[in-house]
Amino acid sequence: EAGVAQSPRYKIIEKRQSVAFWCNPISGHATLYWYQQILGQGPKLLIQFQNNGVVDDSQLPKDRFSAERLKGVDSTLKIQPAKLEDSAVYLCASSLEGPNQPQHFGDGTRLSIL
Amino acid sequence: AQSVAQPEDQVNVAEGNPLTVKCTYSVSGNPYLFWYVQYPNRGLQFLLKYITGDNLVKGSYGFEAEFNKSQTSFHLKKPSALVSDSALYFCAVMGVNTGGFKTIFGAGTRLFVKA
Fold first, then answer.
1. Which residues of A are less than 8 Å from B43 in CB distance?
2. Cβ contacts (< 8 Å) between A44 and chain B: which residues?
3. Taking an 8 Å Cβ-Cβ cutoff, which residues of chain B contact chain A?
4. 3-state secondary structure (DSSP) of residue B74
5. Least CA distance to B105: which residue of chain A?
6. Top-level CATH class of A5-10+19-94?
7. pLDDT score of B99
8. Would you say residue A106 has pLDDT above 90?
């Protein structure tokens, strides 16, 4: 099966600019996750979708971050405006529905803020 | 609140020797526990999970993990390490949270296997 696709792989922007990331999950996976992984740390959940509804966005900085999953398939994560501390790898993952299902990760987008 | 601790930043082991990567957790109710591996510039890959049943679970690439409820631990093990096992390993717990289940990842343990 095709894996989770993410683009772009790398992005360099200046602070206060905006940026968007795209994720295409594995076909049939109802649950989609966006994580932020800062160098040397474990992934931190930003937002979790179940189909096209938000299940958990408690750690999403909503003043600058937004995410959507229209039609319950692809998803985009946006940052506007970016801050220096947003430099990180943004990982998308998908899974079948249920807490016992493993997550399948894309290779991420490495974001550098200048 | 649920949490995951990986007490070792790095584990060093010689090729052919057994390896253990430690993980302890805190969660309300029954835990769903996972191990993932991450290679450089790649996303995380699922290794194994504990949901219920036998305390020793087997996973990919010869890895296994032992669930210990009394010690709230879920240590990752392999009888004979390979140089290619060198990578970053993450323990994760999924527990009940307001609105559903939430995944928490540990900070990761870097495994270095020396030839």
1. 4, 91, 93, 105-108
2. 105
3. 4, 32, 34, 36, 41-46, 49, 51, 90, 94, 97, 99-108
4. strand
5. A42
6. mainly beta
7. 58
8. yes
CB contact under 8 A, B102 and A104: no
Give yes or no for a contact between B93 and B23, defined as CB atoms under 8 angstroms apart: no
- Mean pLDDT for chain A overall: 94
How far separated are the first and last CA of chain B, in Å rounded?
A: 41
Q: Do A99 and B99 touch (CB under 8 A)?
A: no
Residue B11, pLDDT score: 98
How many H-runs (helices) and E-runs (strands) does chain B carry? 0, 12
User: What is the C-alpha separation between A29 and A111, in angstroms, rounded?
Assistant: 26
* Contact flag B99-A56 (C-beta cutoff 8 Å): yes
B91 and B33 in contact (C-beta within 8 Å)?
A: yes
For chain B, the average pLDDT equals 93
Question: Domain boundaries in chain A?
Answer: 5-10+19-94
Q: How far apart are CA B95 and CA B17, in angstroms?
A: 34
Domains in chain B: ranges and CATH: 3-114 (2.60.40.10)
Residues B27, B79: contact at Cβ < 8 Å?
no
